[in-house]
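MODEL INPUT / OUTPUT PAIR
PAIR INDEX: 1
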Amino acid sequence: MIMTGYVNTNTINNNSIVIIEFYHPKGNSLPSSLLDSLERAIYKAGSDKNVKCVLIRSAGDGAFCAGASFDELLDIEDKIVGERFFSGFARVINAIRKIPKFVVGEVQGKAVGGGVGLACAFDYCFATRGASIKLSELSIGIGPFVIAPAVERKIGISGLSELSIDAKNWRDASWALKKGMYSEVFDNKNDMIKTSAELLESLSSYSEEAISEMKKTLWKDTEHWDRRLFENAKISGSLVLSEFTKAALKKIKD
């Protein structure tokens, strides 16, 4: 049975700032239900003319996001279901990419797999010293195919290669900062939130048209992601059915 979580949305500063917070009891992992809710919340914020910017964060002081739900991965029994699950990450990344608002992220703790992809998709990403990252997918027989374009766009092919191939070891927040994944890194969560709030306050005073045009510039030449990310989801959806992956997931869960 997959434990449930939530996606909550709150508006502040005369509805010009939308804060989207997600939570799951297992390390803020993302089952299909939360991915669907997260996508809807992003698009809703993006279509609101009063909104200038969006903040995405996860709840608590622990992990930012443990990536895909292992429980749900273990339950996948055919390619269609597998493709549908991994397409959830594709839809969230594309939602961040396509809305005409800046999406700011706060990464308060470790990020794994899909959590790394999410952080790389943010237009501006704050983090704490404890926000280490890892792409563990290859070690369990899947590979970070859906999120790879977002990771490559942010930290380059060398960074993607390093994270993907050395799949069992963590990279600390300083590494992610040097690579350009994190925009700023703080010693503690309170300082991160304070600086994030200051940036959001500034963004809320900017021209909506200018923000929209700048967003287009930042994401230039990614229009093919509407197709590419879903093609990559098919690869992961097939690989998750392998005996190797099932055994690896069961071992981790046990």
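PAIR INDEX: 2
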Amino acid sequence: MSQIDPASDRVWHAKQYPFEIPDHSYQLNADGWQPLADFAIDEMLHPVVASGSNASPARLADKFAGFLDRPIDVTRATLCDFDAVYSAHFAKYGAIPATLMRAAGTVVSVNVAWLDDAQLDRMHATEALGVNYEYQILEEISLMLDDGPTLDRASAYISKRGALNFGGAPVALSAVHALERKWQALSQEQMLDAARLRLAPESALDHFISESLHDDDLRLARTHALAVDAIGF
């Protein structure tokens, strides 16, 4: 059995989810990202709501490396009657990622990535469609773009595993701002530690994360254990 290094950069990285998210709209291109100066809706593009790490320019830059022939505009927005919560699964990079959940009365801050057909295909390829997520069109919503119109239709990646059940309710991401939030909010590190107490209470947290990073079978078994009582969308 290989030696697990609990102090690895990958363990630290897992705890940083959903990573750094600007508090303003931005544009991502092959040279990096910068604040978005001008934005106009292009009806040919797909508005994709990001409730977790897909809102982070660093994460998007990793996903779209080599696929940025056209810049991607990412607009800040607020989404009514939803919240960003933890999904009942572990990502390959060790974090417990996010999903949207309907939450009457809550208004959550999100980002909207405006993707062309090729970029949407690329995003699909990074989202483990059919395994951890499914691509859904959200109808009759209220998605208010910063300094822009309100959309009643957009798409999002929704967890196929369901929302992680913590004491009978989903758990919101404390890193994502929301008004009138109805559920407890935890940081990534707090959520990972809660999962550790549930699944491997004898392990130290960094060791628990390292095991999931290094052992695909164990990570999948832990995902199945979280999904047993998950809360469906």
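PAIR 2 NOTE: Confidence is low (pLDDT under 50) at residues 1-7.
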